[in-house]
Write a structure and sequence with these properties.
Elements (H helix, E strand, L loop, with lengths): L3 E5 L12 H13 L4 E4 L11 H15 L5 E4 L5 H14 L3 E5 L8 H14 L4 E5 L1 H4 L5 H7 L5 E6 L4 H10 L3 E4 L5 H6 L4 E4 L6 H12 L3 H17 L7 H9 L16 H17 L3
Helix pairs in contact: 1-2, 3-4, 4-6, 9-10, 10-12, 11-12
Length: 292
């Protein structure tokens, strides 16, 4: 259902911190020109914890207005409260979104049974295609393959976004779970797709949408030589975009490209001068070495 290069889209903001809806629409138009396969809005990269309810509504509406019938819109609706997650997922469904991305409950540290029951409740409450999202480095809980396999029996749970770099885990999920495997870490993208994954929800695609889509196309079509070449060329930029917490480096890079203003919301801060040099060099090197 969801495959290829799917951008985990940033939320552009003015230097005063207001959501810049004009820049947001221009970003979407740029990605359409670059043939990005899917759009994930209001996720981690979008600074979703700092987005108000009114802003969330406007961002979803703007995305659907520009993208309906052109590319799938997947809305980040996961929280660490089951009832809140159901409410946000239902909002996305009512507005016409194509899917929901559900981060595992964070901070609470649920057991595997708690994770199962949480996602079961959402799956049964809202008839919207749902992508489970496992990111233990942010949530402090790991959605294990056994739990994913159990949850894949629900028709509304259609995919897993996995950030744990474990090829054995990738292969088990592909073999035993009745859902699609998607990557959530650009640096591990090739290994995941070669293990049977269907695509990547990417941070780097914000900055290099055309190159990242070609990388995914090569990997998914079995052109391993070309995919490995692109992985090698893009790897330094993948790494540079995480020299500080996501999306700090990515927003700085987009500002350098003239795509967005220099707005970011506390508690995140603008990229430090020391790391600006690192990201800038990675961008220069990518432009020089990446032959599309």
């Amino acid at each position: 259902m969801f495959q290829g290069s799917m951008v985990a889209l940033v939320t552009p903001m003015t230097s005063q911190g207001a959501v810049d809806y004009g820049a947001f629409e221009r970003l979407i138009e740029w990605h359409l020109e670059c043939q990005t396969d899917g759009f994930v809005i209001l996720g981690t990269t979008a600074e979703s914890p700092t987005i108000t309810a009114d802003e969330r509504l406007k961002i979803i509406q703007a995305s659907l207005r520009l993208l309906k019938g052109k590319a799938p819109v997947i809305v980040g609706t996961g929280t660490n409260c089951t009832q809140s997650t159901i409410a946000l997922t239902r909002q996305a469904y009512d507005l016409g979104a194509d899917g929901a991305l559900l981060i595992s409950p964070y901070y609470n540290k649920p057991t595997q049974e708690g994770l199962y029951l949480h996602h079961k409740a959402v799956a049964e409450a809202v008839p919207l295609p749902q992508i489970l999202y496992n990111n233990p480095s942010r949530t402090a809980c790991d959605l294990l393959p056994e739990t994913v396999i159990r949850l894949s029996k629900f028709d509304t749970i259609v995919a897993l976004k996995e950030t744990v770099n474990d090829v054995v885990r990738f292969r088990r999920i592909v073999a035993e779970a009745d859902l699609d495997l998607l990557g959530g870490s650009d640096g591990d993208a090739l290994a995941l797709m070669q293990a049977g994954g269907k695509g990547i929800i990417s941070v780097a695609a914000n900055v290099i949408p055309r190159a990242f889509r070609q990388f995914c196309q090569a990997a998914l079509s079995g052109n391993d030589e070309r995919a490995q070449q692109l992985q090698t060329q893009l790897a330094p930029l993948f790494e540079a975009l995480f020299v500080e917490a996501n999306p700090i480096p990515t927003k700085w890079a987009l500002h350098e490209l003239g795509k967005i203003d220099n707005g970011i919301r506390l508690p995140l801060t603008w990229l430090s001068k020391q790391q600006q040099a690192v990201v800038k060099q990675a961008m220069i090197d990518e432009e020089k070495t990446c032959v599309l």
